[in-house]
Amino acid sequence: MNLNLLILIPVATAIGIIAVKGLPRVRMVALAGALVQFILSFVLFFSFRAERASGNQDPFVFTQYYKWFPSLNINYQIGVDGISIAMIMLTAFVVLAGVLISWRQEKWSKEYFLLLILLSTGAYGFFIALDLFTLFFFLEVAVIPKFLLIGIWGSGKKEYAAMKLALMLMGGSALVFVGLAGTYFFGGQSFDLSSGAHITMDPDKQMFFFPFLFVGFGIFTALFPFHTWVPDGHSSAPTAASMFLAGISMKLGGYGCLRAATWLMPEAAHYYQPLIIGLSTIAIIYGAFATLMQTDLKYINAYSSVSHCGFVLLGIGMLNETAINGAVMQMVSHGLMTALFFAAIGMVYDRTHTRMVKDIGGLLKITPFIGTVFILAGLCSLGLPGMSGFVAEMTVFMGGWQNPETLYRVATILACASIVVTAVYILRAAGKTMMGPLVNQEHALFSDAKWNERTAAFVLLTGILIMGLAPFIITDIIYPGTHVLMDKIASGASITNEIELLK
Amino acid sequence: MPDNFFSVMQFELVATVIMFIVLLLRLGKKRITGDSLLLVINGLLTINLLVGFFCNAHGSLFGDMFFSNPLICFQKSILNLGLLIISLQSWPWLKNHHHTAEFYIILLASLIGMFFMISAQNMFMVYLSLELATIPLAALANFDLQLRRSGEAAMKYIISSAFSSGVLLFGISLVYGAIGSLNFEVISIGMSANPLMIFGFVLIFAGFAFKLSAAPFHLWTADVYEGAPVAVTSYLSVISKGAIVFVFITILYRLFQNIFDTWYQILFLIAVLTMVIGNLFAMRQQNLKRFLAFSSIAQVGFILIGIGGNSSEGLTASVYFVLIYIFSNLAAFGVISLVSTLTGKESISDYKGFYKTNPLLAWVLTLALFSLAGIPPTAGFFGKFFLLMAGAAQDNYPLVIIAALNMIVSLYYYLRVVKAMFMEENADPIQKLKTGVSPALALIICVAGLLLTGLIGGAYEYISSIV
Hints:
By secondary structure, chain A is mainly α. In chain A, 75% of the residues lie in helices and 3% in strands. A two-stranded antiparallel sheet of chain A has the order 1-2. The longest helix of chain A is centred in the last third of the chain and has 32 residues, at 321-352. By secondary structure, chain B is mainly α. Chain B has a two-stranded antiparallel ribbon with strand order 1-2. Classes of the chains: A mainly alpha, B mainly alpha.
């Protein structure tokens, strides 16, 4: 299948949105675009499986190659492996749900949907890019729509949050740029990622450039201590933008850490491994305890995102196959789950006009659908078996435990323990807002979820349940992908040992 | 007369002919004024631009004083393009001006000076044409005749440029004293790191840094930009600066190649200083013209990094960046000039709520600012990326890191304007403006340019092929 469609359809949708007038038409165009993309992601999934079944064992399939700036050896190069397909499907799910949730976006609807679609274009392009320049291009394409989405349609201290997010993410891109320049000049004057397995950089250079690349991408995925944009950004953003931010945008970072930083510079990854694991464990624990203190539903989910994305970095940092599989699954799972959670919070907020836990209570009786969705999202977040969160986190823990050294064991145990804290804040928030007595009698008049909200929740829940109940569907395509990456990542260990021996 | 006289000097001749046509129009018995005059002039400038595309002469004249090749032709075409855009943008301002023809005569004189400067192969020629390019600009800066600050800007400009010319001339004379020739070829062979020559070099460098408004020689910039009419400000910040960049590269790469180690150190310091100072001052500006003045100082810092690459990539990236910079800066100036001409408002806080009343103009300004900040998919992203890549090839990573961090700072102040336009309320917003055909055309050219020059790799590849 032609991967360019994944970029062309959002672009066509964006042009369509510009062309039409009025909310009803704009949202129909946006929905049509998101639906086509959703279907396309399934087509991609099945054609990828067919391709593999027919014996195509290339690391990347459906590759395409166009010269862009040949004199600098910069090319527009795209292709997918199992990991990117998982991320693309996640994006398609979240985008569809996000468009549905924004169905009644009255203020400047045209611009709103336009920016949402542009943001998703950046994400799709990022996940299919096989050239670091293309990758970087799309990474930055996805930054600015967030600034406008939060700043214009947000709530609370939206301008501050928008500016903070844009500057921190831009800072991340700036660091990524330095890392990219390093890989270009010391990795054979090329940005080609498809032959990543063959790029060998001098270990000394890796030690210098790896932190730039890893921290740069890490900022996108809330690497401690660069996570501070997450709570402000997520909680000020309008519902769909929060879903996109936490569901898709944070995954760009995890994907980049894995695909660009760790894969291209395995020696340095092993060298900095204790640091990565230390920081991600801090993020997990700190995120969990910080969530305990929050009283605003969006802040609760935002801080818990910091904690959950810590699992992604922890999995990558463990540098073994199981843990990295777990990290990829955690990215998908967290994307679906947090999007669902933000959607549920958005539904509550649209009715109550407050997000403070203390002002809401007993909604399950009045709006059973919203209440159920809210509780399900919470349960997935705390890792209930049968849902995606359990599968993903379990895989990370299993991978983590494979590392025999004490530090990694301790990190794994601490990360496991954080689940208890997660249970505390999730159950407390869900119990207080959904069950118990009605806090405000006006809330008794609320209507339950509309069709668009139901459909959005249904889409995301389907994803979560499929992944939780039949994880093999998704792991079948992820595992071979990480296996290819591991061939090179594992080779980094020996050289690092040699360096230590020499010292 | 040599056979290739007409082809090698094509740009200068065409511009001179146009200048005389405008002069004759002014002198004629039947005075043409207003729209019809502007129509004729803009038509001539369009022809000027189009004719330039057919030039690929390669040769030299006047005993190697004047030289042309496809790259130089391309650089001149960039300037022509910028001039046309500025001319289209200033239509509403010049329509009711009493001295429209004079404006163009002086403008073209300055442009011809720049053409000679780019083609120069001799320090004498460089100096002469530099003066031809700058002195008319002082007259132009004073072109809002009734405005006091316009006169002040002209005064500041003429004094500072006279001073910098003096410094430059002193440098040239020292180099001449040490080597005994003004010819580029001879100087480049004879150049070595002895103190006299280095002193000469430093003075020449400082002279050009003045004209480029690189820190610490930038102090005249903001005042002149603010006081001069917007059309002149954009000419100063885009065309004049672009031409100086082209000459500066030639001089560094050819004349002083032998003392690369020396000039790289200086360039490194000046680049860092220029970026940091430009960015820090830009953050605090309220007047949009001053704001763009400081932002253009910061942009020069980035260009200097690319020049520091000392390679054909560095040259390509710099020329490419100037092309993109013309589109982005002129798009920004276009909107500001429109607003300033029609309402007189120039402050950032006046732009609050601008999106509600003028959505299209707000988007154009936003795109332009994104391009200046280096955000994809605008061309500025590609321009900055390639400049920094060229700089990184020198293995000077501290410089690249400083530049990358500066991009964050610059994003902050560009976003401040975007924030004002889109997110803030205003009790007294700028009214819905009637753009008019020709400024709209100019903006369309700019927007098309800043969307396409990057995404379609052709422009960069073309420059790279002729470098």
